[in-house]
Amino acid sequence: MLGWLCIPLAFAIGMYLLYRQGVGVAKCIAAVMFAFWPKKDRDKVTLKSCSGWVQHVGRFSKNQVYEFVLDSRLSNGTAEVFLLDRGKRILLHLSQSAPYGKIELVGSGRYYLRWKFTAATGTCELCWQLEDTTIA
Question: CA–CA separation, 121 vs 57, rounded Å?
Answer without folding.
Answer: 24
